[in-house]
Records
---
Amino acid sequence: MRKKIVAGNWKMNRKLQEGIELARTVNEKVSGTDVTVILCTPFIHLSEVKKILNRDGLFLGAQNCASEESGAYTGEVSAEMIKSAGASYVIVGHSERRSYYNEDDLTLNKKVKLALKNDLIPIFCCGEVLEERKAKKHLSVVKNQIEKGLFDLPDRDFNRIVIAYEPVWAIGTGVVATSGQAQEMHKIIRDLLVSRYGKEIADDTSILYGGSCKPSNARELFANPDVDGGLIGGASLNADDFMGIVHAF
Ligand code: PEP
């Protein structure tokens, strides 16, 4: 059975003390849910937030990791370091990383492998920009991102992947994909996984939706058979909104 997951991506927001407060509030509010809740904090928050999280089903994640193992890469943070700070998950290939930092498929594939090697679960992001959707290329764009980023993984590794479909035009814009658009893409992704890894692994893989998800629209999105939860940006910075999304299941 695949997991239901709601992951918060704080992005480059909240000073350390503010992040600690936010994590404390979320920790207090998480209880009695079968949803896996993940807080993806900035790197410097990781070890402090780890000390706070003590609820079943509440996990820590990072938002990125280096594409190299260790060494002379000034400013980078390795998967091994992230693991040592207490994280269990790491976001790989967020559209902001792809577009602002030119992270290409090969780089992201290396990050995924280093995450897995260090026992971190990658939350692998994919999604098309508006022009690609208008040109009806969105299906092939997402297919290509997933194939190049993930499809050389053996079955035993793919078992540990979470996918987040995040249409770029919906991220931080207030324009959410319709329930039908989300389900269409999630079903296509699941069928793609079936063709490469078989039905069992595809059925066990959580596919999250991301892009302007809020308490008011989460219920309809999550009601789709192939939408297994959300990757939440803006709304994860407010504990009540974030928990409203968790409870939308
Ligand atoms: C994100 O950054 O992953 C995201 C989905 O952002 P938002 O929820 O703010 O659109």
Note: The chain has a mean pLDDT of 97.
---
Amino acid sequence: MSHIAYVNGRYLPQRLAQVHIEDRGYQFADGVYEVMCIWNGAPADYEAHIVRLNRSLNELRMASPASDGALKLIVQEIVRRNHVEKGTVYMQVNRGVAPRAHAFPGASVKPSLIVTAKHGAGPSDSVAEHGVKVISMADMRWERCDIKSVGLLPNTLAKQAAAEAKAFEAILYLPDGTVTEASASNAWMVTPDKVIVTHPTTNAILGGVTRARVLKIAKDAGYAVQERPFTLEEARKGKEVFLTGTTTFVMPVVEIDDKPIANGGPGTVALDLRQRYRTYMDSLTEAAWDA
Ligand code: PDD
């Protein structure tokens, strides 16, 4: 079955969908994006993704390509036309098409909007039950990691390094040892006295939608939670380390740079949060489009 993509007002078979060679997303990575999970045909945290998309657009002084209402209809249509039960929707907004020049083009240049869908969501349960290995790497990104920009070269280099080391992810750290996040997910640890810790939402990390959902789930379940920086050293000596993200759900980390965390098995807190997150996902219905 061929995938259907939405490109600037048209629904097309993905192989025929094209963007202009002078699109600023292509030439300058002058674009922002969102990836949301579809579960039982319904979106996880739809509203939070749209709030973050609008924030990214605002921060870059980029116009919205569509009203929130029109965008929702497009996303719903892409989910419907691609028959997505469990999968992801990708949305990208670029500043538009103009002769190449670094400064912004005039206001007559309209932003481009692309929406696509994929089947398959999250890693398999057996991956999570065993936990994953990660590597650590210097965070060499810019100072606005809070913007979900398509400028992802440092993230792709980090993920490639992880893949070459047969690891699931690369955890990124600053020169002072602070762990910011991972290449495409947020990083967490559990202290020896069972406090859940994750980096606060500053410019140094992407404010993950899954991160916010898992924070709420953890607090509601009665866990002690702190949003504060932690170092790679503290994480190595922690009781648990785990990751969260739209394509990761909650993933226990069992080794950093080939050294085990605690006893080298997936942590009970991470597995419990993963289960609770799954319960949230399983509860999604049509009503989630308006949640
Ligand atoms: N990435 N941090 C980074 C750098 C990310 O790229 C992502 C998500 C996250 C987790 O955010 P969320 O929970 O909202 O998915 C954290 C997406 C999935 C991607 O680039 O494909």
Note: The first helix runs from residue 24 to 28.
